[in-house]
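Homework help board

Subject: predicted structure for assignment chain

Our instructor gave us this sequence and asked us to write out the predicted structure in token form, then describe one feature. I got the tokens but I'm not sure how to describe them. Can anyone check?
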Amino acid sequence: MACVLFFALLPTTIQVLSVDYRLNGGIASGLAVAQTAPLLLAVVRPLRAWYVVFAANVAGALALLSVDFEERLLWPFPPMTIVGYVGLCLALGLRESRRTLLLVWLATAGAGVGLEFAAPDGRSGNGTLLTILSGVALVLGGALRERYVAQRRLAEQETISEAERGRRTLLEERARIARELHDVVAHHMSVITVQADTAAYRLNGLPPAEREEFTSIAATARESLGEMRRLLGVLRNEETHGELAPQPGLTRIGQLVNATARVSGPVEFTPCDADVPEAVGLSAYRIVQEALANVVRHAPGALTRVVLSEDGEQLTVLVVNGPPPEPPAAPLEKGDTGHGLVGMRERVRLAGGALDAGPLPDGGFRVAAHLPLAERNFT
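My token output:
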């Protein structure tokens, strides 16, 4: 845009000043260069360009007082000068602060008013016109700049908010998983406490040293259980209530499958009767629960397969659904069982396994989780 104005206005300004206004050719050429060349600088330094153009415009107006030109011609600012100056004001509005724009406009208005008093007899100046047009350009440029800045800040804020939402979702899911694992671990600790407390009654002829050892084990288990309950109190918030029902495992997955089949569509289920750690069974149940909930929400009526298999080292959970017969008009399931793939990945990560989840070429979706059966040391 600056190049177009420069190459269009430079020869025109020289021609008009030298021919129409009868200004000396050298002076006309110098004024034309001073009034148009800074427009190229306005792309990166509009305020510096304005200093040069403003001074050249005032100097040109004073130079025109020394020549005799027709009354029909505009003074103190020829049309080319107004076009270039308004374009420069628009560039200023896009780059400079409100305070700078106000000072520029005041300087323009002051120059226009001052030159009005120096107008030749019988001539009316157009300084007011330049003041109005430059003010409009400055306001328009400033409005566009502030709109761009607001949009950029909004985009940055949305990016930050999205990152914060993702982080909050992850932390909430970790706390949720920790609360569920607490119930599993608390059960084991309770069993240890009961066995240690009753060892003296179940085992006849225990020496005093062994009795004291079992008593110490029971006391340590009770203390650990109390610490776990205090830890759980930190993880719970005022809106989260304790769950009295036992945590589900592999044996409850069949109920999930039947419930999904009644609501959504056909579900093929291949169960696994292996004896797995309770934490692994809980993770498998939650993964299947979330995967089937996604089927209900996003692919109602699609044929779904749920396969559980165990090879002695790991438990494999596979949930695959085909494309829905027709796009769902609205979610069929109102409740939320977790945080989708975020929760699945976090459960698998805590178990030391691997998760493969993603869309299929035919429009379906596949979730495959591999959960190690060996005990993992969480540190």
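Reply (TA_rk): Your tokens look well-formed. For the description, you could write something like this. The longest helix spans residues 127-202. That's the kind of observation they're looking for.
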